[in-house]
Design a protein that fits this description.
Shape: globular
Number of helices: 7
CATH architecture of the domain at 2-119 and 250-291: 3-Layer(aba) Sandwich
Number of strands: 14
Structural class: alpha/beta
Largest sheet: 7 strands, parallel
Distance between the termini: 27 Å
Order of helices and strands: EHEEEHEHEHEEHEEHEEEHE
Strand order of the largest sheet: 3-2-1-4-5-6-14
CATH superfamily of the domain at 2-119 and 250-291: NAD(P)-binding Rossmann-like Domain
CATH class of the domain at 2-119 and 250-291: Alpha Beta
Length: 292
């Protein structure tokens, strides 16, 4: 039974911990969080500010932090010989992050699965399989309607923002509208905050609007959706259309994928990996042949 620490105790961290409780081959051995206090619903689970302070060294760690905080936390864990899985979701930074984390993973003799959420992550695997079936063509990924955890965390991190929520609406053919609802800190300037949000890398590639509110939680929803379409050709024959869609509870699905990726990490050679590079059976506990 592998001992797993969860780094972070927000919605994602709690979902990952619940998935670990249901896992037949892993168990949670502690939470790492800035405030050294017990996590609601997990009164018997140790809490520490560093994995060094846990009663026992974890075999692996699930990184349930905002993406921009993940890499630094992960480097220390990997160097100490602790396997990791994260849900880093800034697509254009994934390749560079893998190169950097590979150095630390190989030094520690362990592996890291990065971008192990549902996009990147599960959706990345689906897009890879679609590409293999129709090598020539184009793929569109449409998100929403639903709340984006990564975009919400990015908006919350902007100076002058007390709380925020980012809602995604699909416009079709891979285009999206991001509606950001922000609560200002006292004396914050609306114009400056709006400019800072819209200039953030999470938002600068999409159509966006910023609205100010007294409560971002009024707009909260854990639900999200995705639809992926590939139009292309197979064996030189066109008019192939492959479609995948799902409706999900965002933190619950992401937490489950992180636990499955954590399982797979123990089966890989030292280094950092994306989910499409991993044999699918490595994500599963027990027998998997019945899906054939």
């Amino acid at each position: 039974m592998k001992k797993i620490a969860v780094i972070g105790a927000g919605n994602l961290g709690i979902s990952a911990a619940k998935a670990l409780e249901l896992s037949p081959d892993m168990e949670i051995c502690g939470f790492i969080r800035r405030k050294n206090q017990k996590v609601n619903g997990f009164a018997d689970i140790p809490v520490a500010e560093s994995f060094f302070d846990l009663p026992e060294k974890p075999d692996g760690a699930i990184i349930a932090l905002p993406s921009r905080l993940a890499e630094e936390a992960e480097k220390q864990l990997l160097e100490a010989g602790i396997f990791t899985a994260d849900a880093f979701d800034i697509h254009e930074e994934l390749s560079g992050m893998r190169q950097r984390l590979s150095v630390f993973a190989k030094k520690g003799g362990v592996s890291a699965i990065i971008g192990a959420g549902w996009d990147p992550g599960l959706d990345s695997v689906i897009r890879t399989l679609m590409l293999s079936a129709a090598p020539s063509g184009i793929t569109f990924t449409d998100f929403g309607p639903g709340m984006s955890m990564g975009h919400s965390a990015a908006a919350k991190s902007v100076e002058g923002v007390a709380d925020a929520l980012s809602f995604t609406l699909p416009l079709g053919h891979g285009k999206h509208l991001r509606k950001i609802y922000a609560v200002l800190k006292e004396n914050a300037d609306k114009t400056e905050v709006e400019h800072a949000v819209l200039s953030d890398g999470y938002f600068e590639h999409d159509e966006c609007s910023v609205s100010f509110s007294d409560s971002a939680s009024d707009y909260f929803t854990a639900g999200h959706r995705v639809k992926i379409n590939r139009f292309g050709s197979s064996s030189g024959t066109g008019n192939q259309h492959i479609e995948f869609s799902m409706e999900i509870d965002n933190p619950s699905l992401t937490g489950q994928i992180l636990v499955s990726a954590m399982r797979a990490a123990f089966l890989q050679k030292p280094g950092a990996y994306f989910m499409p590079e991993i044999p699918p059976c490595d994500f599963c506990a027990g027998e998997w042949e019945n899906v054939l």
